[in-house]
Design goal:
It contains 20 helices and 13 strands. With about 600 residues, it is an alpha/beta fold.
Length: about 600
């Protein structure tokens, strides 16, 4: 048991350590950023820098460890906040990126990402004293890559095919996440993925060893402009890809990470690998022969942080940085330069400043899921919808209830598919499916999913035929969610998945005069030639992947209830009429080559 004298001595020691740490110039808020960063980094040993640069990934390769002798806490870099605070309990979920892009509204993007950031920061503030940290103040963005191949699994995460639109919306995205304080980030955003990454992910070959052959003209007119605007807006960091660019892995590409980012664009933020991508420099691209050479290649090229992953079963190559310095393959001066952006970013979070200086430290937990956040999720979904067909102005529908309607299709009541990939937790009390929403416009609803899911390999024709009988109006909920197309799972064609075309045909053949409204849920173009040409399909509403507010947003738009209920979204990509319209180079899967 401690004596009173011993306890007093311990308190004095803690105070002395704190005072000692407070005397470091890197904690002096009156100094410029670069002076503070230089002071901190020059105090680190090579071994300490090694661990800081290597431990930026997934468990067990996180967090970047504490440095007690300098009073520096452990720091967690890895987090996801694409359009919702992933991992934050009860966070609000917004539509997938491609739907947000269809709004063509920079102000909406900024509002959405402000809510995401507020909820992230609020939760961080509530758990920030935990050791190890539960979440950090850095998270990764939606996919800012340019959508070129409509079969790419990650089309749903993008802002579409246009570099100008992507860059313009990306600027608002950055402001929303990071805030507008002149000194501090509310949350830091790492922009994904630099660069010329747009498929394939897995068909016909894996992205892990894909080499994108891109002319400099195509790079500078198509792939680089959006990222330049996003970084100029102040994005905290940027992530390199799994792929190679013109024969060199992007995470070891000096032209990309140093000549363009640092020398041309004068970028000050950090660079980070995609999860396990540094490991892939050697194992998938055969660019290096061992971990020491891999670490040297990536550090010298300009990569500041490795996002390691436990999926490889091997340690991050960046743990070999100290060995590479010892072998003369990285100079100590180079190493210290590469560590600076990491600590510059951490200073922008206010980590080394008095807590009372940073107003973002005061965001309370109560903001998570508050009423206006949930209302914004509905508004964002409504503004994302694109009206593709409206024969004889069947929409908007009457506001008084129908006597009997049919709601049919595998996406009518599947909230998981309607969220898309990379989403915050699904909170049942926040959610409404299309079926939930449509129940409110009719006294009787005849429902049949027709398929187990949107892959639609097992189809129940009888259930669909029975459901549409006697209906005044038929709603078909078709499309392709993440079970069909997502990261790591490209499509091989643009057709409706599985037997959904048969479901559409059955509805047409058995409608008995009732108009059909097709509600499409998708992350990219789908061949709708049958529905578009058929006079039996009166309207087509592209809803993308609207997440938690799906049903309520659909209900309001269909009956034109309230502000924002007129579907005014615009397609953020070219919509091929059919498979044959996909260009020759894409048919050959040369989806990144200049054409």
């Amino acid at each position: 048991m401690f004596t009173a004298s011993a306890r007093l001595s311990a308190v004095v020691l803690v105070l002395l350590v704190a005072l000692c740490h407070a005397d470091y110039p890197f904690r002096n808020t009156s100094l410029p950023w670069h002076d503070r960063v230089d002071d901190l980094v020059q105090r680190l040993t090579v071994e300490e820098i090694t661990s800081q640069m290597a431990m930026g990934g997934h468990p067990p390769w996180q967090p970047a460890p504490a440095i007690p002798r300098l009073g520096i806490s452990a720091f967690k870099w890895n987090g996801e906040c694409e359009r919702g605070a992933n991992g934050v309990p009860n966070a609000t979920a917004f539509p997938q990126g491609i739907g947000l892009a269809a709004s063509f509204s920079p102000s909406l993007i900024e509002q959405v990402m402000t809510v995401v950031s507020m909820e992230w920061r609020a939760y961080y503030n509530s758990v920030s004293k935990k050791t190890p940290p539960e979440i950090g103040l850095n998270c990764y963005s939606t996919t800012f890559n340019i959508m070129r191949d409509p079969r790419w699994g990650r089309c749903q995460e993008t802002f579409g095919e246009d570099p100008y639109l992507t860059g313009h919306l990306g600027e608002s995205y950055v402001r929303g996440v990071q805030g507008t304080h002149p000194k501090y980030f509310r949350v830091g955003i790492g922009a994904k993925h630099f660069d010329a990454y747009g498929g394939p992910d897995d068909k016909p070959i894996s992205r892990m060893n894909f080499d994108a052959k891109v002319s400099e003209r195509d790079l500078r007119t198509t792939f680089l402009p959006a990222f330049r605007r996003i970084l100029a807006a102040g994005a905290a960091g940027i992530m390199c890809t799994y792929t190679s660019l013109n024969g060199i892995p992007t995470c070891a590409n000096q032209w990309l990470l140093t000549e363009v980012l640092r020398n041309e664009w004068q970028y000050l933020g950090y660079t980070v690998s995609d999860a396990g991508a540094v490991y892939g420099v050697r194992t998938h691209h055969n660019y290096t022969h061992n971990d020491v050479d891999t670490a040297a290649a990536c550090v010298n090229a300009g990569l500041n942080l490795e996002d390691g992953t436990d999926q490889t079963g091997l340690k991050p190559p960046y743990l070999s940085i100290a060995a590479a310095v010892k072998a003369g393959k990285i100079t100590e001066n180079t190493l210290r330069r590469k560590a600076r952006p990491l600590f510059y970013t951490r200073m922008r979070f206010g980590e080394f400043d008095p807590p009372e200086d940073n107003p973002y430290n005061d965001i309370p937990l109560s903001v998570i899921g508050q009423r206006d956040h949930l209302a914004l999720a509905v508004e964002a979904a409504m503004k994302s919808f694109v009206l593709l067909k409206n024969d004889q102005n069947i929409l908007p529908l009457k506001s008084t209830p129908y006597d009997r309607i049919a709601v049919v299709g595998p996406l009518a009541n599947n909230i998981v598919e309607l969220f898309g990939n990379y989403h915050s937790d699904i909170v049942p009390s926040y959610c409404s499916t299309p079926l939930d929403g449509l129940k409110k416009i009719s006294n009787n609803v005849q429902y049949a999913s027709g398929c187990d899911n949107d892959v639609c390999e097992n189809y129940n024709s009888g259930a669909v035929t029975q459901a549409v009988k006697g209906a005044e109006i038929i709603f078909l909920c078709l499309g392709a969610g993440p079970s069909v197309s997502e990261e790591g799972n490209d499509r091989t064609n643009l057709r409706l998945p599985g037997k959904q075309s048969q479901l559409l045909n059955d509805a047409i053949q058995n409608r008995n005069g009732a108009p059909i409204i097709l509600l499409l849920f998708n992350g990219g173009p789908i061949d709708l030639s049958l529905a578009d040409s058929s006079p039996d399909v009166a309207a087509i509403l592209d809803c993308f992947l609207p997440a938690q507010a799906s049903g309520e947003a659909i209900r309001r738009v269909l009956i034109k209830e309230g502000p924002g209920s007129v579907p005014a979204g615009r397609s953020p990509y070219t919509w091929p009429l059919s498979e044959s319209d996909v260009s020759r180079c894409l048919i050959k899967r040369e989806c990144i080559r200049s054409v």
